[in-house]
Amino acid sequence: MPANLPPQARAAERRYIEAKTLPEKIKYLQEFISSIPEHKGNEKMRGFLRRRLAELKEELETQKKRKAGSGGGGFSVKKEGAAQVVIVGLPGSGKSSLLASTTNARVQIGDHPFTTKEPSPGMLSFEDLQFQLVDTPAIFEGAYYGLSWGAQLMSVIRNADGMIVLLDGADPVSQYTVIMKELKMAGITIDRPRSKIEIERTTGGGVQIACAGRITCDVNEVEEILKEAGVRNAVVRIWGDAGREEILEALEQTKMYKPALILVNKVDIYPDAVMKFEEAVGKRALGISTKTGVNLSLLGREIFMVLEIIRVYTKEVGGEPTSKPIVMKKGSKVIDVAKIVHSHLYKNFKIARIWGTSAKYDAEKVGADHELADGDVVEIRIK
Q1: Which run of H or E residues covers position 65?
Q2: Matching CATH topology for 83-191+257-307 and 310-382?
Q3: Is residue 288 scored above 90 in pLDDT?
Q4: Geometric angle at alpha carbon 189, from 57 and 152, rounded to 5°
């Protein structure tokens, strides 16, 4: 262990070593990692400790699943609709009221904290889509390391397509700080990563790097990082800018990005809450009131934009477009539609005709790599 660790790091290390339970070990190991100075001399140690943290979290998840499978209550919610979006907030922020005000769900709304004991889903309609909103038990300090239902809550968040961070207008900044801390400790971030990295292990050929962007460290360092983790043969695909930290996170899978819509509730009582929040935090928020209904009609559109998805409609040759869209991520291409519809279309793809905003004109002939836009109609032709 390096001799230049600060006192708080050594104290956290000691608490980690002495911890008796798995949640405590996770908590104090996370604190230990966070307190280690970030410089090159400590990178090997940080990498080892983060891998150990991932192992402990996986072990805790396994225990939770085993307990649920043996007859205990479960937090899992089957996904329905175009996307699943969990509502995350502190006690009293209005999560249950939001679900009741915007969906057909019947939920218990109480004046006392922790009324919600387990996830409760409801469907929010937006044009020809439906989003599944999930009210969850309140997040709290210590949730990330497994206290009470904390580990189950984090598992629900990880499994969702996105989240709503709901804040009480009385004190949105401090609530946001608590929620972000818990999410960060659990390896969840709402900040879009600078890069997307895929590491595919292979049986030979050494380390091969394909980069559509910029590597901010020496290429040899990438190979060194992988070898230290026992990966000697792999294809590393990088989109965007990436350095040592991003590659380590991709390798250890210690950080997961979740798109998030930030809502500040009770603006009927605290009309300046959104402005004060945005000035203090530097992030956009939408002010709402579950009591008066202010801006609730905008929720579907806001979720659609935050998730960065598009709707694509298919049609057969000479037929009419389908009424039900295929929901895809922005940047999806024609060949991605073929993959979803049927393997026969994908394997025998020849050309496609496009109607919509991505086309120069109606029925434009395009190839497999044509990027689609929301509302496009696609007619695929095969060989």
Answers
A1: helix 43-69
A2: no
A3: yes
A4: 40
Q: Which of 1.20.1600.10, 3.40.50.300, 2.160.10.10, 3.40.50.720 is the CATH number of 83-191+257-307?
A: 3.40.50.300
Average pLDDT, the chain: 84
- Domain parsing of the chain, residue ranges: 7-69, 83-191+257-307, 195-254, 310-382
Contact 321, 312 (CB under 8 A): no
Taking the CB of residue 338, how many other CB atoms lie within 10 A of it? Answer: 22
In the three-class reduction of DSSP (H, G, I as helix; E, B as strand; rest coil), residue 120 is classed as: strand
Q: How many beta carbons lie within 10 A of that of residue 334, not counting itself? A: 23
pLDDT attached to residue 72? 43
CA-nearest of 122, 108, 110, 116 to 299 is 122
Q: Which two tokens stand for residue 309?
A: 């998805």
Q: Does domain 310-382 have CATH number 3.40.50.2030?
A: no
What pLDDT is recorded for position 236?
84
Classify residue 319 by burial, with Cβ atoms within 10 Å: 0-12, 13-18, 19+.
exposed
Q: Alpha-carbon distance 172 to 246, whole Å?
A: 30
Q: Collapse the DSSP code of 75 into the 3-class scheme (helix H, G, I; strand E, B; otherwise coil) and give the result.
A: coil
Please write the tens of the pLDDT for every residue from 58-96: 777 776 666 555 444 456 788 999 999 999 999 999 999
Residue 204 confidence (pLDDT): 84
Interatomic CA distance for residues 187 and 269, integer angstroms: 34
CA–CA distance from 206 to each of 6, 91, 223 (Å)?
A: 38, 51, 9
SS3 state at 354: strand
